Amino acid sequence: MKTINIIGSGNVAYHLLRAIEKSTNYKIQNVAVRSLEKPVDFIAADLMVLLEDLKPAAITLISVTDSAIAAVSEKIPYTDSLVVHTSGTTAMDVLNDKNRKGVFYPLQTFSKQKEVLFEEVPLCLEAAEPNDLNELKLLASELSNNVFEITSEQRKSLHVAAVFVSNFTNHLYAIGNEICAANNISFAILKPLIKETADKIRCLSPKDAQTGPAIRGDQKTIDAHEQFLTNPIFKEIYKLITQSIQTNV
Amino acid sequence: MKTINIIGSGNVAYHLLRAIEKSTNYKIQNVAVRSLEKPVDFIAADLMVLLEDLKPAAITLISVTDSAIAAVSEKIPYTDSLVVHTSGTTAMDVLNDKNRKGVFYPLQTFSKQKEVLFEEVPLCLEAAEPNDLNELKLLASELSNNVFEITSEQRKSLHVAAVFVSNFTNHLYAIGNEICAANNISFAILKPLIKETADKIRCLSPKDAQTGPAIRGDQKTIDAHEQFLTNPIFKEIYKLITQSIQTNV
């Protein structure tokens, strides 16, 4: 069994831990947390250590807030190990030079309350050394069927795209939810539509899948919708995306 | 077998026709099209007629562009029948008074190139007369397991919500696609994320499901993303939805 250290206890750390625990050739050696005073419910007590007490492992996964990655990697109390971060936006080279560098970015939206099929999660890998890339590929291919080599530059653009298709999309769901709630309609009535909209682009390009008043140029409906919306920022979003549908892509 | 007339040959007409053809107690009597010179490939030749030649049926479904509904309903060559439209935004009372009025609104995104599980499509019903509402319920419950009574006022708000969660969401997918294409990344890598984002709100509220730099208040990442985006309208959408996540819902 190869050993893995995880540093962090957020959503990504949680799902990585779960996936690695289910693997056959890897085991979690330790999870480094900020304080042992505040136990983290999903981490077994005997796995938890402070960062300064972490012992070397085959791979160390840093899964903390982007802005803390550099400092955390500097505080790792060992050298010449393979240390990777899991961030979509952070360049590989912010990692401290005392260890070998890489990136292990799972391109998925993770919440602790929702299990995911980890074997479907795209894992975007990068490493400074070819041997280390192979190490990461071995781990990644045991956890997922979707493994990609992605440069720091590509990863940056992927992360922006991910914000649009996931974080922003979820916010549009939240707006739909608000509109339903304000009009005494169950949000459940929109769920088949949400599902089908996501499902459609499995076989159609988003361009071919586009429907609705904006792409039809149905100005009467657009005007009625804009008039209906009283929340000024929702109205602004309506106008802007309508304009974008009509002019872009 | 009860008879159904459909007026129109667009995406909604296509999927309604397919669903009704599969039903056991209803059959398509005729489909009224604009011109018999231009055959519509999904309509059997012997079903197609011109509007002026349409004969009365148990239910007549008008599935044309919103702005044409009033005029089309006026040209129907019979009276005292149940005539309903399938529009999300149009009030029931735009239908001509010479027939009994109702609405049969399938809340789904329809494209001819993509089959849907019609039994999951929410059907939103309204009728001026209780007997007619029952007629519509009988048809609806044979086509779908999701049948709702929705007033014209509620339907209007539902349609606005649907534009956000479906048309606008699809446009965010299109933006993701553009960003990938511009950076030599396959759009396929985003598909598990799109799927999971839609799947998540089956068990979490959109508010609880929200992740990403905006909700985390990760200004460094937000700044980097805004700088990355060169398309001015994509940049504007990024700013506006980020602001909306941080201030609303």
From TrEMBL, chains A, B:
InterPro entries: 6-PGluconate_DH-like_C_sf, DUF2520, NAD(P)-bd_dom_sf, TM1727-like_C_sf. Residues 121-245 form the DUF2520 domain. Pfam families: DUF2520. Gene3D superfamilies: NAD(P)-binding Rossmann-like Domain, ProC-like, C-terminal domain. This is DUF2520 domain-containing protein. It comes from Paenimyroides aestuarii.
